[in-house]
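Hi again,

Forgot to attach this to my earlier email, sorry! This is the prediction with nicotinamide-adenine-dinucleotide bound. I've pasted everything inline since the attachment limit keeps bouncing my files.
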Amino acid sequence: MNILLTGGLGYIGSHTAVELIAHGHDVIIVDNLCNSKPEVLTRLEKIVGKTITFYEFDLREEALLDDVFQKESIDAVLHFAGLKAVGESVEKPLEYYDNNVGSSVTLLRAMERHGVGKLVFSSSATVYGSAESPYSESSPTGVGITNPYGQTKYVIETMMQDVASSNQQLEFVSLRYFNPVGAHESGLIGEDPSDTPNNLFPYIAQVAVGKLDKVKVFGDDYATPDGTGVRDYIHVVDLARGHVAALEHLASGFQAYNLGSGHGTSVLELIAAFSEAAGHEIPYTITARRPGDLASYYAHTDKAAQQLGWSTEKTIQDACRDSWKWQSSNPNGYIN
Ligand code: NAD
Ligand code: UFG
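Structure tokens for the complex follow:
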């Protein structure tokens, strides 16, 4: 299939491009580079050994998007493009609604005009809000979401359901990611935050390589085995393969799937695993809880296993090893 990847030069999109090509698909990438670098394309082409079609523009540019649908014979769309910093979304909510929801509306309209009905969307476990963990796809969504970023994911999922209900030809899937971590085993592509990382894993990686002093552990008084926050970390290559599986099992209507490992790992366990991979202790200090953080959550993974035939294969140790390889060979991330 010819697959359009919006935001395909980003962290998850780039890893998914590699897996799609490995499964015989062709990819066409649209990205405005607001949170990625042109160098990603060079690295991707090196990994896959072929040229990848790339268009640089903002997805909200309807006419440019029309040109892509006209020129390329698109069979399906994987929609990664969006802004993802939770804290920033609280400060700039309109930017988040405009970019995330606005670009999704533009995309759905263009798909309709050009008769493309297959869509896989990058959602997040954040749509479960205050539901009780472990989350299953039938857990309530949209209640207790604490930030505009999470709201945009919920709004887009709702819109996808409404649109899918209006036309039996549409095959829409929302993938609810848990915490993506790790890098491609080549060390050529990985996560490259433009600023000081907000998320734990890239923060640990930058402490490991000496770019940051020490990890700040946000609270050790949660009701968890060691008192620190517990999350379901998923290797980005497993996540990428989840997209290939979703694409190959598309069916009429709207479906949501959790993409997680089904296991929780604490902050301290993650620091210990990364220390092991890096071969030296990673310094950390305990600080206050971060407002809005939940103590613990992880995924129920049965639906993806049963319906997509997909489950994670890689471990936290694999993620730490691959991320260390990426971070230590690219301490400053992509050059341009
Ligand atoms: P990323 O920022 O690395 O990738 C997103 C890409 O989209 C970037 O290359 C950016 O330049 C591009 N982009 C953003 N807005 C655009 C627009 N209007 N037009 C064209 N391109 C645009 O993020 P990621 O970690 O790869 O995440 C991909 C998707 O997965 C996002 O939608 C994100 O919300 C979602 N997600 C990520 C995580 C995570 O922890 N990384 C967790 C859950 C969900
Ligand atoms: N943490 C620290 N120190 C840090 C950063 C995080 O101790 O410097 C802790 C947090 O308190 C939490 C855990 O590490 O217990 C993970 O935090 P992250 O910021 O890495 O990830 P979150 O689970 O908070 O959020 C992530 C994504 C969101 C997404 C959410 C649900 O950042 O976009 O998962 O999928 F919505």
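The chain has eleven helices and 13 strands. The two ends are 30 Å apart (CA to CA).

That should be everything now.

G.
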